[in-house]
Amino acid sequence: MAPLLSVSGLHTTFRTDDGPVGAVDGVSLSVDAGKVLGVVGESGCGKSATSLSIMGLLPRTATVEGSIRLGDRELVGMPDDQLRALRGAEMAMIFQDPMTSLDPVIRVGAQLEEAVRIHRDVPKQEAREMAMKGLASVGIPSPEERLRSYPFEMSGGMRQRVMIAMALINRPRLLIADEPTTALDVTTQAQILDLIRDLRTEVDAAVLLITHDLGVVAEMCDEVAVMYAGRIVERASVDDLFARPQHPYTWGLLTSLPGRHRAGERLHQIPGTPPSLLNPPPGCRFAPRCDFVMDSCRADPAPALSTHDGTAVACHLDAATRAREGARAARDDAP
Amino acid sequence: MSELLIRARDVRIGFPVTRGIVFQREVARVQAVDGVDLDLHEGETLAIVGESGCGKTTLARGLVRLQPVDSGTIEYRGRDITGLRGRDLSAFRREVTMIFQDPIAALDPRMRIGQSVQEPLDIHDIGTPKERRARVQNALERVGLSAEHYNRFPHEFSGGQRQRIGIARALVMNPKVIVCDEPVSALDVSVQAQILNLLDDLQRDLGLAYVLIAHDLDVVRYLSDRVQVMYLGRTVEAGTDDQVYDAPRHPYTAALLAARPVADPARARTRDRIVLQGDVPSPIDPPAGCRFHPRCPMAQAGCAVTDPALEQDPAGHGVACLHPLAP
Amino acid sequence: MVRFLIRRIIGGAIVVLVVTLAVFVLFGPVLRMQSDISPARLYAGKNPTPEQIQRVSELLGLDKPYYEQYLITMRRLVVGPSDEEKARLCPGSTPDECDAIVGRFGSSFAEQVSVDRLIWDAFPVTLSLTVLSAIIWLLISIPLGIFSAMRPRSLLDRSSTVFVLIGQSLPVYYLGLLALYFLAYEFEVFPPSGYVPISDPIGWLYHLILPATVLALQFAAIYVRITRSQMLDQMGEDYVRTARAKGASEKRTVVRHAFRNAMLPIVTMFGLDLGLLLGGAILIEVTFGLQGIGWLTVQAAKRLDVPTTAGIVLFSAIIIVIANIIVDLVNAALDPRIRLE
Fold first, then answer.
1. Is residue C6 less than 8 Å (CB to CB) from chain B?
2. In A, which residues are within 8 Å of B215 by CB distance?
3. Topology, domain B4-224
C-alpha cells in the first residue's frame, strides 16, 4: 500500500534581502495511515519549514520544489483553491503556542464551527453539534458552556485541546503537530501527549510530529527522521534510533541530554553552532562540528542517505565505526 | 559543613490585584510565594523546580531584591537583606548576582558586549577603567568568548553565545552566589549542554553557589545538589537529588517525575505514568487545605481541610503532605 | 458591562470638572493679573472710565471672591442661568429674548448673544464637515491600507506610500487653497465657500464636498499608514496561520480574522480624531469660510471675546470626553478581553 504522505526531494527556499536561504534541502519522507513519524532537530534545521511546505502555509517569499503527495494527489504546484479545500479537511495542523494560535476576539465555538462550515455545507445547528462533540472528544469538561468561552478565558492546556479538536473536526487523514507541547508545562504536556496518542488510534490518521525533544519522540513516534541544517541525516524506526543510532549528530543529541547523567559527570557537548543556511558549508553540513570528520566529509558531494537494516543514514563513516560509536552513544543514553 | 550563605525563612511575596481606573484599590493579593524556607551553602547548587505559576521566578527575584518581600527574612551571611538600602544593598548585589532566561532581552541591543559586561562594575564603581577592562576580558574568556568579542553587538551572537555573555556579566563582580533563572530553557539541546558544562566548570573553579530556577527536571538533576519542589507558592518537597528523584514522597513530585518524557522508547512503553487531571488553580484563590488536593490522585477527605506543613525526616528529606508516599 | 460604563462616565465627569477649573483659572484670575485685559475691562467697551469698569465688575459678579465666582459659573453650567442672573444681565427683555443672550456658557462680549447660541449655530457646520470627511477618509484608507498590507512591496503598496507622504507633508490649508483655486475659481466646479443646512441635502453635499475631501485626504494618509501596519502585524500572528490551516479563503482570513483584530487600535484613534475635529477644524473652516466651531474660535480670539473662547474650550473638552467614552464602549463591544476583564 502506498504511504498516505510521501515527500520526495523537497527543496524550500526563502528569498531574503541577503540572498536565498535553502531552509529545506532535499528532504524525503513518508508516513502511513495510523503511524506517527517524528521529525526531530534543533531550531533552524528546517523541520517547521517542511511541515509548512506540506500544508502550503509558507509566506510568498518561499518557493517549494520537489514532490509532496497526499494519497494520490500531488500538492506541489496545485492551484490555491484546490489546496485550500484540502487544508483543514484532508490535512490539518496544530501549532506550538496555544496562547496565540486562536483568534482572541472570537468565541471558541464559532472558531470550531468555522472549521466545519468552510468545508461542508451544513446548517449552523449541526456545525454547533459537531463543535460540541469535538470539545468533548478532547476531554474538555462541560463542552456546551465552553463553546461560549473566549480563548483568553482558558488555560494553555485547554487551548491546545481546542486546537486539537479543531484540527480533527473534519477527520483529516494527515495531522501535522508542530511542537504541540513545547509551550506547555510538564504535567500538561503529559495530558496532551496522551490525548494525541488516544485520538490517533481513534481517527486512524497519519501523524507528522515535529519536535526538538527526544523524550517526546521516544514516547510518541513509530519512525523518526533526524534533521540537521535543512537535510535529513538519519531516518529509522524509533527503537533502532535509540538502540543503534547511526549518525554522529544523532549521537551528539543523545549524549548531550542531561537526563542520563549523574552530577559530576560531564555532559557531552556538540561544539559550535549550526551553519548559516545562507551560505552552508560544502559536503556534509555537520562536518564542521563532527568529532569523526574526515577529509571526504568536507567536499561535495555530500553523503547521500543510504539504507542498511532499515535505517537510512547520510554519513561517510564506515559501518564498523558507526556500529561501535552508535552502541556507545546508545549505552550512554540508557539508564 | 561549608558556610551557610543564604537562609530564608517564611518568605512571602505577593502582587496586588487592582480594580478601578481613577481610584485604584487593591481587591485581592496574589500570594506568588507563600511562606517558603530556603538554605544555600557555599559552593552548592540548590534547584527550585515547579511549573509556571508556582512562584519560583518570584522567589528568585526576591532573593536578589529585585522584588520586595512582604514578610519573612532572607539572611545573607547572617544579615537580613530584606530591608537593605544604599551602600549595604549595593555591597550585597556585588556578591549575589543573577542570570536570566532570555539572554536577548537581558542585553541592551545598542551596547557593545564589553560595555554590557562592564556595566555592573561601572554602576558599583569598582576599580580603575583599566582594571575594569581587564576584569571584563577575564570574564569573557572564562565563559569561552574571546577578547575580540569585546566590541561586538548582541545581534551578532547566537543564543548560546548570548547566554555566555549573560553569565560573564554576572561573573564580572566576582560574586559568591549566582541566581540562575531558567538559564538554558530557551536553548537547543546541543547548546544547552555547552552552557550546563560551563556553569558546572565555573562552580568548580570559582567555588560559586547557585540557586537554579528550572522547570526541566533533567537539567536540574544534572547540576543540583539539593532540590526544592514548589507548587502554588509553597514548597511541597525538599531534599537531596537522590532523595527527591529516587524516592519522591509528595504525590506532586511523583507526578512531575512521571510526566517528563523519557528518551527511551522501550521504557516509555512500559513505565507507569501518572497523568494529573486539570490545570494548576489560580493563585488568586488557592484551594483550601492542601493546595494540591484537587488534582492529587491520592487525596483523602482530610486533605481538603488541613494544610500540611513541610516536615523533615531524620535524613533531612522534607515533604508537605498528610499522606506522603512510602519512602 | 454596566459597571464598566459607570466607571468610564465617572472618570469622564472628573476630567470635565478639572477642565472647568482650568478654564476658570485661566480666563478669570489669570487674565485679571494683567489689568489691561481683565474681563471687566473687555466687557466695558472702548476707553472705559474706572467707574464703568467697576459697574461691569459688579454686573458680572467679578467683585465676588474667586470660589464664589467659580461656584456660580458651575451652577450656571449645570442647571442654566438663574432668574436673578437673567434679570441682572438683560434688564427689560422678555424671557425669550433673555434666553438668547444669557446661557449656560455665559454671554459673548462681542455680540448681544449667549455663547450657547453661538456654539449651537456653529456646531452643525463642524459636525457636517467632520462626519462627511470621516466617511471619505475611511472609505479611502481602510481598503487601501488592507490591500497594501496584503501585497507588501507591490505597485499598489508603493503608490499608497507615495500618497501617504504627500498627504502628510502637504499642509491642509495649502491643499485647500489649491483646490479652491482650481476647482472653485478656475473651473467653478464647486462653490468657493458657504454652508447650506442639511435640510437641503444636495446643496449641503455640494457645498461641503470640497472642504471635506481636502480634510479627509490628510487623515486618509495617516489612516492608510496605521491600517497597513496594523494589518501587517496581524497577518503575521499565529491565529491567522491557524485560519489558513483550517482552509479559510484569503478573503475570509483577512476580513473575519485579521481585520477584526487590526480594527481595535484604529477605532481608538478614529474616536479621538473625531472628538478633536468636532472641537473645530480651524484651518479648513477658515480656508473655506465655513462658520463652524473652528471659525468661531478664531473670531472669538481676534475680538478677545473671553466667554466665547472659554465656552468653546469647555465645549470641546466635553466632546472629547464623550468621544473617549464612546471609544471605550465600542472597544469593549469589539474586544471581549476588555468587556469581560
1. no
2. 185-186
3. Rossmann fold (3.40.50)
